[in-house]
């Protein structure tokens, strides 16, 4: 009899530990500040999720296992440059679902101040920080640790602050003094860059430049500032578990530490930091509307002992807002040879499903497959 009750005891124990951790309102950084030498059980990932098949060491200079870096040249002023750019971006979105962009137009000092703002928030006085702690997605600004803390198989080694900066930007009063101003400034720059990328992606699909923008792909922007404290046992947990993004497109600013990996041809490929670059990746919603032409690829972040690692992810998606618009594969891309692979959905419906499943290692798009 005893064995049948054991899982219940374990799960009760786990939920008690999760609640105790959440109640501290100091996140993973609080654990590190307390000087722990071993990570708590709630963070220990299943060994299967920690495996790292590395790509075969390809010949020097081979780009087979290096995500593409694309020089945006400010968007391309002449028709030929523009066409080349659209081709390169379309190719990367199709084969990798990930690429880095340089000469993207966002000033270097804005990138640096944004990273410093996120670091400043997470490293400020604990009492000030606690005032922003919340699990209510409707809050103007949310600081918490692990959005799926209570639903995921294992907690991740990171803390996050976040807010929607479009369509209704918060005022500086809604945001932390240490980083509010730069969050708003950086978001405006990301929105400009995002609009250019959606134009190029539309052109890559053979559609009118404004096609994706006219589908409201650029209407909403969610900014998340992640802080990955140094981990005493980085081989036992992850910074972020394997997942794909619930967005149309994600733009990521990462610091020099690294740890981001993309699953490509069943191998984990490092997305090495390129100074001044931004990482761009296709989200589930873009894969859905392009009917699998562009791919939303699974990725993860390793925990590290060097930290803290700082990254800022901006998601083009109305993920947490009511949005009645229905999305399905773009009609212009469909044919007898290319029938729709997904049923129609609303972002609200998909987001609800995505949040309830948490980062369980499976693509949410399976839920919408026809």
UniProtKB/TrEMBL annotation:
<protein>
    <submittedName>
        <fullName>1-aminocyclopropane-1-carboxylate oxidase-like protein 1</fullName>
    </submittedName>
</protein>
<dbReference type="GO" id="GO:0046872">
    <property type="term" value="F:metal ion binding"/>
</dbReference>
<keyword id="KW-0408">Iron</keyword>
<dbReference type="InterPro" id="IPR027443">
    <property type="entry name" value="IPNS-like_sf"/>
</dbReference>
<keyword id="KW-0560">Oxidoreductase</keyword>
<dbReference type="InterPro" id="IPR044861">
    <property type="entry name" value="IPNS-like_FE2OG_OXY"/>
</dbReference>
<dbReference type="Pfam" id="PF14226">
    <property type="entry name" value="DIOX_N"/>
</dbReference>
<comment type="similarity">
    <text>Belongs to the iron/ascorbate-dependent oxidoreductase family.</text>
</comment>
<dbReference type="Pfam" id="PF03171">
    <property type="entry name" value="2OG-FeII_Oxy"/>
</dbReference>
<dbReference type="InterPro" id="IPR026992">
    <property type="entry name" value="DIOX_N"/>
</dbReference>
<dbReference type="GO" id="GO:0051213">
    <property type="term" value="F:dioxygenase activity"/>
</dbReference>
<feature type="domain" description="Fe2OG dioxygenase">
    <location>
        <begin position="217"/>
        <end position="318"/>
    </location>
</feature>
<keyword id="KW-0479">Metal-binding</keyword>
<feature type="region of interest" description="Disordered">
    <location>
        <begin position="48"/>
        <end position="70"/>
    </location>
</feature>
<dbReference type="InterPro" id="IPR005123">
    <property type="entry name" value="Oxoglu/Fe-dep_dioxygenase_dom"/>
</dbReference>
């Amino acid at each position: 009899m005893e064995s049948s009750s054991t899982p219940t005891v374990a799960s009760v124990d786990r939920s008690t530990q999760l609640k105790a951790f959440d109640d501290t309102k100091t996140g993973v950084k609080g654990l590190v500040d307390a000087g722990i030498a071993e990570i708590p059980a709630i963070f220990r990932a299943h060994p299967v999720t920690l495996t790292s098949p590395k790509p075969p060491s390809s010949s020097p200079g081979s780009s087979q296992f290096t995500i593409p870096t694309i020089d945006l040249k400010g968007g391309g002023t002449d028709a030929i440059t523009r066409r080349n750019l659209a081709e390169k971006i379309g190719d990367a979105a199709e084969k990798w679902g990930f690429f880095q962009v340089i000469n993207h137009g966002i000033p270097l000092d804005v990138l640096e101040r944004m990273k410093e703002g996120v670091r400043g928030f997470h490293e400020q006085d604990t009492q000030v920080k606690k005032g922003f702690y919340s699990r209510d997605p409707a809050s103007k600004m949310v600081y918490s640790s692990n959005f799926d803390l209570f639903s995921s198989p294992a907690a991740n080694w990171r803390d996050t602050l976040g807010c929607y900066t479009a369509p209704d930007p918060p005022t500086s009063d809604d945001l932390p003094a240490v980083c509010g101003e730069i969050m708003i400034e950086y978001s405006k720059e990301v929105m400009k860059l995002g609009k250019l990328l959606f134009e190029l992606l539309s052109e890559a699909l053979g559609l009118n430049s404004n096609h994706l923008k006219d589908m409201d792909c650029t209407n909403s922007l969610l900014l998340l500032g992640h802080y990955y404290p140094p981990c005493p046992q980085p081989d036992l947990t992850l910074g972020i578990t394997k997942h794909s993004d619930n967005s149309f497109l994600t733009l990521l600013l990462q610091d020099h530490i690294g740890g981001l990996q993309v699953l490509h041809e069943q191998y984990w490929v490092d997305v090495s930091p390129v100074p001044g670059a931004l990482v761009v990746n296709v989200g589930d919603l873009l894969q859905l509307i392009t009917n699998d032409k562009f791919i939303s690829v699974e990725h993860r972040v390793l925990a590290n002992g060097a930290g803290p690692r700082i990254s800022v992810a901006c998601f083009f998606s109305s993920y947490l807002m009511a949005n009645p618009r229905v999305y399905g594969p773009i009609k212009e891309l469909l044919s007898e040879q290319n029938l729709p692979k997904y049923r129609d959905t609303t972002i609200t419906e998909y987001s609800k499903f995505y949040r309830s499943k948490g980062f369980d290692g499976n693509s949410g798009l399976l839920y919408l497959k026809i």
